[in-house]
Each structure stands twice: as C-alpha cells, then as structure tokens.
Design a protein that fits this description.
This protein is mainly β. It has two domains: 4-85, RimM (Elongation Factor Tu (Ef-tu), domain 3, Beta Barrel); 97-160, PRC-barrel domain (SH3 type barrels). It is 6% helix and 42% strand. The protein has helices at 69-74, 97-100; strands spanning 4-14, 19-24, 38-39, 46-47, 49-55, 58-63, 79-83, 104-107, 112-121, 126-131, 139-142, 150-152, 157-160. The strands form three sheets. Strands 11-10-9-8-13-12 form a six-stranded mixed sheet. It has a five-stranded antiparallel sheet with strand order 5-6-2-1-7. A two-stranded antiparallel ribbon has the order 3-4. β8 (104-107) and β9 (112-121) form a beta hairpin. The mean pLDDT is 91.
Length: 168
C-alpha cells in the first residue's frame, strides 16, 4: 500500500492575493486541512493550509509560501499528498482509491478480466476503470457490493460479477 495518499489538487489561483482554488478528494471537502502539512508528489514542497471559504467547484485556501497570484498560478495542477498514518482508518467495506488502482480483477469463475486503471465517480457511485487482455477499450465496472462482492487487498485481487456482455 502506498505510504502517501493524494488528498487534493491545486486548480489554480483564486483572486490576486495568492489564494488558491483547491479540489479536495476527501469525503468532506474541508477535512483536507486536517491532514496538513501536505506535500507535493515528489516531496519537494510542503504546505500548511488555511481554508478561507467555499467556492464553486472547490475551496479557496492560503498555502504557506504562496504569496502572489503568480505563485498560485505556478502550482496549477499540483497534487497534494498526506501520509497514510494521518488519515482515518476505514470501515471494512470502504477503501482508499489509491489502494484499488492496480488490483487484478477476476470474475466469479476465476477468469482474469484485467486490472483497475483508475477509480472514477460519476456523482452517483464509484466506477472501476478496468483494462485487460483482449479489451480494445477500458471497461467501467460499477463499484457496488452486488457487482464487486470481494476486495482482497492482501492478495491484490478483486472478484467481480459483471453484467453479461460487459467484458466481451
């Protein structure tokens, strides 16, 4: 399992005084500040965060060391990470997206369907993007108990019961 978990991303500057527009990937958007200081993916920069207000499609925030609009613009697209040990333990039937990516997906008969490429959310539920042998395109698999009855992080495997014809 990954030691660092992506909890948000900087979407660009907000205003002209160095605030940034944050996209939070936490269950409750404001919780991103609870995991500060956050680092860049390569660990080269660390930021303390002060949330200033909710805005459309995100949160306005001040980051330590970001003073001007130009500083904020330069960080557009940067993902923010927190150490796994700062994040809460999840109930047995919940998972961090990063832990699902790369897991092998098999059907209930044991046939390999592919691997999880990403986890997407369409607003209603999470979808596993699966890419595998014999597939021209990736397949979106609903991440629900009825379609994905088993997730075994220890063995790196997901057992799925996809609708007929989905992987053909």
């Amino acid at each position: 399992m990954t030691e660092m978990i992506c909890v948000g991303a900087i979407a660009g500057a907000f205003g002209v005084r160095g605030e940034v527009r944050l996209k939070s990937f936490t269950a409750e958007a404001e919780a991103i500040a609870d995991y500060a200081p956050l680092t860049t993916e390569d660990g080269s920069r660390e930021f303390d965060i002060v949330l200033t207000r909710a805005i459309k499609n995100g949160i306005a925030a001040r980051l330590s060391g970001v003073i001007t609009k130009e500083d904020a613009d330069a960080l557009k697209g940067v993902q923010l990470y927190a150490p796994r040990d700062r994040l809460p333990e999840l109930p047995e039937d919940e998972f961090y997206h990063t832990d699902l990516i790369g897991l092998e997906v098999r059907d209930t008969g044991g046939t390999v369907l592919g691997r999880v490429k990403s986890v997407q959310n369409n607003g209603a539920e999470d979808m596993l993007e699966v890419h595998g042998p014999g597939l021209k395109n990736t397949v979106l698999l609903t991440f629900s108990k009825s379609v994905v009855p088993t997730v075994d992080l220890a063995t790196g495997r997901i057992v799925a019961d996809p609708p007929d014809g989905l992987f053909e």
